[in-house]
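Subject: complex prediction, re-run

Hi both,

The earlier run crashed halfway through, so I resubmitted it with identical inputs.
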Amino acid sequence: MDTLEAAFGLILHWDVVTTIAIAAIFGLFVGAIPGLTATMAIALLVPTTFFMDPVPAIGAMITCSAMAIFAGDIPGTMLRIPGTPASAAYADEAFRMTQKGEAEIALGANLLFSAVGGLFGTAILMLMAPWLAEVALKFSSFEYFWMALLGLTCATFIGTGAPIKGLISLFIGLLVATVGLNNPAGVPRFTFGDINLLGGIDFISAMIGLFAVSEVLRVAASGARSLPVPQASVGNLFKGWGRLFVRYWPQQLRGNILGTAIGVLPGSGADIAAWVSYAVSRKFSRTPEKFGTGHLEGIVESTSANNAALGGAWVPALVFGIPGDSITAIVIGVLYVKGVNPGPTLFLTNPQTIYAIFLIFIIANLIMVPFGWGAIKLAKQILRVPPKILMPVILSFCMVGAFATNNATFDVSVMLVFGVLGFIMEENDIPIAPCILGIVLGPMLEQNFVTSMIKSDGSFLAFFERPIAAGLGLFTLFVWGASFVSSYLAQRRAADDPSPA
Amino acid sequence: MNFARILRGLAAGAIATFVLPVTMALAGPYPDRPITLIVPWGAGGGTDATARILASILQEDIGQPVNVVNRTGGSGVVGHSAIAEADPDGYTIGLATVEIGMMHWQGLTKLDYSAYTPLALVNEDPGAVQVSADSPWKDLPSLIEAIKADPGKYKASGTGQGGIWHLAIAGLLSKLEIDPTAVPWVPSKGAAPGLQDLVAGGVSIVPCSIPEARSLLEAGRVRSLAVMSETRNAAFPDVPTTKEAMGVSWTIGAWRGIVAPKGISDEQAQTLIAALKKAYDSDEYKTFMSKQGFGIRWASGADFGTFMKESNETLGEVMKTVGLTK
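This time it finished cleanly. Structure:
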């Protein structure tokens, strides 16, 4: 209890409280702008933390990242333009709710389940960090290979419509992921001698293009009509929450657990957590046909997962100094500068700082509710702007975002090219979500496959030699087998029963 | 380069709009407007942190903002090219890293150290040989014996194919007259994933720098057998140098230094070097680097140029032995 008191003492200073509040607003702002990611928000904070005490410095980063991941949902819901990659998985679904006039319901749910997911991730971090970090350390490339393959399998679940179109989209994404020098052999591929292409196709620019620019093109092509539906105002955002919570508790719990687990594993973070959770939600839903039509179920599960992943990512970061995602990769550097050296001993030698970190996590997820509420109310006004004014504004924001990813005009070109690609794909009913999953997971799959083969001197059996890898491998094969069997049975049933349904 | 011109145009436009109205009135000695510092690696990494702390100290001294701009991608080629191609007007400088002496040997670019005006070397972290704490090897000779007895069995990781730590272990082996391919390289996205794989049992050796392995060293999960420099690391004085452990002198490390495009005026270079020296000597920089566990090393102007040239030649030689050159 003394430690807890000391921890409270560390936090209840005016400078800590102000820093957290400013970081919260900053995080909301950056997260809501397409192309400016949570990782970027944290990177921008680094220089300012040089001049802060340890607790406010760490508090600013925690709060900022939690807010940014939630705020990414706002433009995703309103305009189908995910503010951060973590919101991409369900941007389309949430936007369809807006088209039905349910923007406030979608955003309210995003806010509630983001906060609860964040708290769940924090609880796991507090209670199980040392143990979970041990598990995460057992993951080698063999295990990651299966994880990436499982993730890609999700692509067949998330796309609506014909599976073959989902596969086309996935392979476009995988092709894009092969461009550049960042492959295991370090050999330039598809670069045509261009220095910019050596760096590969930046995932963020591609994502903005696929989602946002294609939307701008579509509005332009359809004659820029206003949104026909008046937005139902829920009035009190908090009113329906109790009902949502009761109705979707299994989805929410599953999203929380999956999100935290994916966060704990080094190298995968909030964005992958959201994709996988959305796919899992659809796979196990009783009403999978409603997915993609503006259905809350998948949104609840994945918005829980991406915020839960944030807490999870701190597990290996605090215990072993190994980043759980791109955000903690930056945070670790700051921890060292502030003398809070990560390590198992940190929990023994510096408990009041650790408790202070936990408390800030809790506070950040609690203040997300009022801050997020304000942001939603403000952002709602966007929908009143006529599309012919709004769309050019969005396009210019997209350009800023794409430019900011690498400070290069090349990325703006990438964004525009992918905008046209996204437009063509969607006009032909090819879903864009699997393509993005391919871009995200393609490099991970290749890297882990090639390094595993080097380690095993070319033996495929090595993928089943380690216990966790063998378990994951068998599970993957089972999922595939089950999918084939069920689709075969469905076909036979359809053949046996020619009467129209 | 068309896009570079557009970029410059944009930058010039921004400067004309926001900065000129102020500086026109105050136009004085160099520098009279903000300086851009290009970093070829991502925001948040060790290189980025070093650049940002230097920039923040530097701007207090020269009285103008120093803006850090990350130009990532292509294993550093993109950013290093951007520095070399910038206008040599003294308002764009960059942070060059050890990779400048590697990428042209691989045939990725024609660019090498000679494209820059060297200003100051500010950091160097030598490589070290890390093994898992569960491994049977307590010192470097026993590891080397195991490698000799079973070539190809023990794999190493910690950076991409042909990256600095790949060359560190390959160079050490060839110094010991062992075929460098006796330890196959497993490419990884950096030292942290490599170290994680070491603890997970995926690889046997990670020849990264001591600061990168620090948290796992302190947690007792990995063991450092030798450091590839002339002196021991102050924070880990028990780890011997390769010379002490094996009797061969092999030094290699990742370094960072500030450079300007070729053609910058001598006067501007001297101003920047003087300011960098002050920043390097400041308590802020020293404390920051020692807290991160980063090593510091100073060389300025022509000395730094010679350093880059030597580094370039050593790396080229190792890369030829390993067969990474084109």
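Chain B touches chain A through 62 residues (CB under 8 Å).

- K.
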